[in-house]
Amino acid sequence: MVVTRKDDFCARIDRLGHRLRATFQMRVAMRGRRADDVAHQLLRALRGRIARRERAYQALLLKLERLDVRRRFEVMRARLAAVDGRLLTGVGRRMHGADARFRATAARLDSLSPLAVLGRGYAVCWNADRSAIVRDAATVESGGKVHVKLERGELDCTVD
Questions:
Q1: Whole-model pTM?
Q2: Total domains, the chain
Q3: Are residues 1 and 52 in the same domain?
């Protein structure tokens, strides 16, 4: 078999074509892998950035909730209701104690009152112008005037 230059040339072109195709396919495959790597890195960077932004957003949202006036007023309203309840309980206890002390003092005062003595049947005798209580019969002359206070009523008397 005689190989001609034309056959040699065609075979060489075929080999170069195969090599070129193989090289081209290898370059395309390498570029594809590189594109996949770059796409993967880009996706990872985007996810990281989104995650950071989400954390920042959540932190700002938390700050905003802490500054929420309605929520703060609700907390204050609850605290005020609790303090109001304690205040009413304390005032009630103080009023009850004061009332008991007042009643005890009034009872003692009533027992020491000269009017209570009159209620037991005694009388208070005053001089005629009612400026002094008569404590001694010798201080009033016969025919002198005295004023006697009873539990119910008063008497103007003349001493015999």
A1: 0.38
A2: 3
A3: yes
CA–CA separation, 150 and 160 (whole Å): 20
What is the secondary structure of 101-126 as a DSSP string?
A: HHHHHHHHHHHH-HHHHHHTT--EEE
User: Which residues lie closer than 8 Å to 148 by C-beta, 6 or more apart?
Assistant: 123, 124, 125, 126, 154, 155, 156, 157
Residue pLDDT, tens place only, 109-156: 887 877 777 777 788 889 988 898 888 888 888 888 999 988 888 989
Question: Which two structure tokens, joined as six digits, stand for 56?
Answer: 């920042």
- Cα–Cα distance for residue pair 131/134, rounded to 1 Å: 10
Q: Report the C-alpha gap between 26 and 81 in whole angstroms.
A: 79
Structural domain span for residue 27:
1-67
Same domain? For 1 and 59 the reply is yes
